[in-house]
Amino acid sequence: MRPDTPAENVDHTAEAARLERTADRYPEDAEALLVQAAAHLELAGDRPAASSLYDRLLAAQDGLENPFLVRALKAANLWEYGHEAEARAIIEGVRAAAPRDPAPWVIVAEALESHDELEQAQETFTEGARVLLTDVPEPPYSTHPLLFGRHRVRRMLGLAHDEWDTLADTLHTSPVSLDELHDPKRVWSLGSDNPAELQAEISRLRAELGTFREALSRPFPVAVLHWPASELSELLAAYPSLESEYPSHEEHLATIEESLRELSSSGTPNLGIVSGTVPSYEAFAASEGMSPAEVSLLPQYATTLAARGRAVEWPPQRGTACWCGSGRVYGECHGE
To answer: Are 29 and 20 in contact (CB under 8 A)?
Structure first.
């Protein structure tokens, strides 16, 4: 599907079939492609087929990068077509596993919220925040929806602000505050014939739409390219002219961390790292009709890998392994 194709003109069933065929051709990207295919099937109203795709992925769980994300998506989908008990069981399993990725927390909490389980949704959002944000000085970009969703549900429940609600307000950049956007009384204004109230609601909706557009404009991270030591050696042996770009592996790793910290300090959100391989890079160069020795091709390759869902978030979540592959915790390695 072209990115400028209007949503109403999309044949979701055909797009899902295309993504499945692409997954068969590129098994290394099958997880991301099949998750997208399942989303199209949900939009087409074929929820049982979407569940079958989630089951297909989970059957190969040992090879999944984000098994809890797939489980969360399956639970949300099951509940939408009458399998509430199974959905609840999966949701409880996801919560008990306490994944280090915010996406599963957001998906299961929003599933509970959409079925009016507001207390459970609030507890789930809070559990996710506790797991991911305790003792974290700056919430990663990917955790913002967790904080915003938690704020929304707590506002609907009429709970008083706490520190995380205040943090959500701070992170929210729209000219309309979260308190106003999440005000349960907003729905009343939709049936009002008072022009002032209707104009105020239009302003709020425009601000909310602007926030959504900003998020959608960054569907994948700004990614920096990382070469594992063995891959970098193979790359430089095949294309010696790239030695000016990569004097040594140690310097390459240091440059990655330095570049990401500079981007972060300049206010760039949603940062990540993609790891390259020589065969993949050579195939990409061939598809672009360029030589792999072209330095200008490297950032394009990084962007393509990020668009294919190959990026890992930077900085890593607290207590997780460093992105460089050393096996050490990030805080004791490049995060020092």
So the answer is: no
Q: Under DSSP, is residue 253 helix (H, G, I), strand (E, B) or coil?
A: helix
C-alpha 62/C-alpha 85 separation (Å) is 26
Which residues, given as ranges, of the chain have pLDDT below 50?
1-6, 216-218
Neighbours of 107 (CB within 10 A): 23
Tokens 């290394």 belong to: 28
Residues 6+ apart with CB under 8 A from 44: 12, 13, 16
Phi, psi of 45 (to 5 degrees): 90, 5
Bin 270: left if φ > 0, else alpha if -120 < ψ < 50, else beta: left
Residues 151, 169: contact at Cβ < 8 Å? yes
* Amino acid, single-letter form, for residue 334: H
- pLDDT for 2 equals 37
- Report the predicted TM-score, pTM, of the whole model to 2 decimal places: 0.67
> Which residues make beta-bridge pairs with 273?
224, 312
Phi, psi angles (nearest 5°) of residue 249: -70, -40
Q: How far apart are CA 153 and CA 175, in angstroms?
A: 20
* Percent of residues in the chain assigned helix, strand, coil, to nearest 5: 65, 5, 30
Closest Cα partner for 301 from 322, 318, 324, 278?
278
